[in-house]
Design goal:
Pfam families: PFK. With about 350 residues, this protein is α/β, with parallel strands linked by helices. It is built from 12 helices and 13 strands. Strand 12 and strand 13 form a beta hairpin. The structure holds 6-O-phosphono-beta-D-fructofuranose.
Length: about 350
């Protein structure tokens, strides 16, 4: 059996560990031949493949990024795209199936290709931890560790200057990174997309922390929406969430907090630092286990399925489980943390 492996969508610490896991088990236990597909679905469409042996994956579990490269190409777009063309390309290279490692967009494309008769197995990936199909996704723990470390550092400089520090973390649609890093670092305010807050509510929590003699620490997900945002900025004649002109939500909040509290406030956007570098030990283990189980799934021809973590087990689930509604932070989890704010 010959299998092409691709990574697609945003990169994520642990991608290389999945690749290593599947190649080691697949070659040794099942005699599967692997090829790497360069830059996600772009490589499938262009037939951009290279041999992937035990040698290429040596020592990879600790290496960040992806040795395959990644892109956000949609396999159904472009003149060489579409199931029929892809099928011909795979047939021409004698490739029997694809292992697609990616997030919601990747898995939606994988599902469609699978329904169109192409052999695909998936591995879910998201540092945001927003896929319903899996209890935890590799990359999330690393991102939380990086964000926590960054906030610990913001804390000491904030304390020294008696400043309010605002940390903007990743999370386009859900607030898992902000919630976990916020709890870990002891943030005084956690702003996530699932729980809209007004600037007055944020200011109240900042002021309470300040009155207790603390340098307030605010963590905000990039996808957080402020209640009454339009009104707050209307006096400046600016549209709310006009990112090119105003920067991200962290940079929008900081001057408002400073203006309304009188506390000097600084914003830090952690950005892609959260996605770079080595995966944490937890993510290396999770990603490796997903890779090992993906090798079993390939051997057994479980096409149209993906491997996922449920509890502490790795199971197989249909692609459909990863699509549609996102895994957002339930209110009770937010309220748990809110008890810490004082
Ligand atoms: O979905 C993962 C993620 O890291 C989000 O948290 C973030 O909004 C987005 O990707 C950034 O994407 P890009 O790397 O394309 O700027």
């Amino acid at each position: 059996m010959k299998i092409g492996i691709l990574t697609s969508g945003g990169d994520c610490p642990g991608l290389n560990a999945v690749i290593r896991g599947v190649v080691l088990k697949g070659t040794t236990n099942y005699d599967i031949e692997f090829v790497g597909i360069r830059d996600g679905w772009r490589g499938v469409v262009d037939g951009d493949f290279f041999p992937l042996t035990r040698h290429e994956v040596k020592g990879l579990s600790k290496v960040g990024g992806t040795i395959l490269g990644t892109s956000r190409t949609n396999p159904y777009e472009g003149v060489r795209g579409g199931a029929e063309n892809i099928s011909k390309t795979l047939y021409g290279h004698r490739i029997d199936g694809i292992l697609a490692i990616g997030g919601e967009g990747t898995l939606a494309a994988a599902d469609r290709l699978s329904n169109d008769g192409i052999n695909v197995i998936g591995v879910p990936k998201t540092i945001d931890n927003d896929l319903r199909a899996t209890d935890y996704s590799f990359g999330f723990d690393t991102a939380v560790n990086i964000a926590t470390d960054a906030m610990d550092r913001l804390r000491t400089t904030g304390d020294s200057h008696q400043r309010c520090m605002v940390a903007e973390v990743m999370g386009r649609h859900v607030g898992w990174i902000a919630l976990h890093a916020g709890i870990a670092a002891g943030a005084h305010v956690i702003c996530i997309p699932e729980v809209p807050m007004s600037i007055d509510e944020i200011v109240e929590q900042v002021t309470r922390a300040h009155d207790r003699g603390r340098a307030p620490l605010v963590v905000v997900s990039e996808g957080f929406k402020l209640k009454g945002m339009d009104e707050a900025f209307s006096d400046k004649g600016l549209d709310a969430f006009n990112r090119p002109r105003l920067g991200g939500i962290g940079e929008q909040l900081a001057p408002e907090i400073e203006r309304l509290t009188g506390i000097e406030t600084r914003a830090t956007v952690l950005g892609h630092i959260q996605r770079g570098g080595s995966p944490s030990g937890f993510d290396r283990v999770l990603a490796t286990r997903l890779g090992l189980h993906a090798a079993d799934a390939l051997h057994e021809g479980s096409w149209g399925q993906m491997v996922a973590m449920r509890g502490t087990d790795i199971v197989r689930v249909p692609f459909a489980d990863a699509l549609g509604e996102l895994n957002s932070v339930p209110l009770y989890r937010y309220e748990e943390a809110a008890a810490l704010f004082g």
